[in-house]
Write a structure and sequence with these properties.
Distance between the termini: 17 Å
Strand order of the largest sheet: 4-3-8
Shape: flat
Structural class: alpha+beta
CATH architecture of the largest domain: Orthogonal Bundle
Radius of gyration: 20 Å
Order of helices and strands: HHHEEHHHHHEEEEEE
Largest sheet: 3 strands, antiparallel
Helix content: 25-40%
Number of helices: 8
Strand content: 15-25%
Number of strands: 8
């Protein structure tokens, strides 16, 4: 097999499972950035949100599919902006909405920790709070001081899960059961959390989930399966 395989897991950024919480926070922050600052380049947005420009372009597609009037302009003076004088009403949060958001952003999220994304989630929460107007931000901060949400004792995390989540996000080729006589090459396109734990969705066999207890040793390639398209 011609792929270059690392002996240790190759870990980069985040995952597809992020789509529920972390990606939603990022899309919301991008919306607020475009609303408050106007036209921005994909590189500027990537630096602000700490992701790749490719991720920004995927997020723009997602926002467009959701019906948001995101306009991409080409050329030296081009960039990404909100069209039709669009403004979100999110900045006008009611008091109880700001309080609920405050508690939600303060809560421990074991799933994000298991995926190796807790630090990124904390940064996203802080940036999201900073993006609100002063009155809303003050309400969120004051509410956070009212509640002490101790983190539960978490089970020992499995480093393979965080590594696989990075592989999903970066579309890395992965070899599972790597040290056996019959290793398997997979193209991970998703992680699924069910009653029996985590499973992997393989692009090569999308109809059959691969449970985590079948992964055994995991080696993650520097190559992506997108390169093979």
């Amino acid at each position: 097999m011609g792929d270059t395989i690392h002996k240790r897991p190759y870990m980069t950024s985040t995952v597809m499972f992020e789509d529920g919480t972390l990606r939603a926070a990022r899309l919301l922050q991008m919306l607020l950035l475009l609303q408050n600052r106007g036209r921005m380049s994909s590189l500027q947005l990537a630096k602000e949100l700490e992701v790749s420009t490719r991720t920004i372009l995927r997020d723009v597609d997602a926002m467009t599919e959701a019906g948001l009037p995101v306009v991409v302009l080409q050329g030296n003076q081009g960039g990404i902006e909100l069209g039709f004088n669009y403004r979100t009403r999110l900045t006008g949060l009611a008091a109880d909405e700001a309080e609920a958001l405050s508690v939600m952003l303060t809560m421990s999220m074991p799933v994000l920790a298991a995926l190796g994304m807790s630090h990124a989630a904390a940064r996203a929460s802080a940036k999201l709070i900073e993006s609100f107007p002063d009155k809303v931000r003050a309400r969120i901060v004051s509410t956070q001081a009212l509640f002490q949400l101790d983190e539960p004792v978490a089970a020992k995390s499995d480093p393979r899960l965080a590594a696989m989540s990075a592989a999903v996000r970066e579309q890395r080729i992965v070899r599972i059961d790597a040290t056996s006589k019959s290793p398997r090459i997979v193209h991970p396109v998703g992680l699924v959390l069910g009653e029996k734990g985590w499973s992997l969705r393989d692009k090569l066999q999308p109809d059959v989930l691969v449970p985590m207890d079948k992964w055994n040793d995991v080696n993650i390639s520097a190559k992506t399966f997108a390169d093979n398209v």
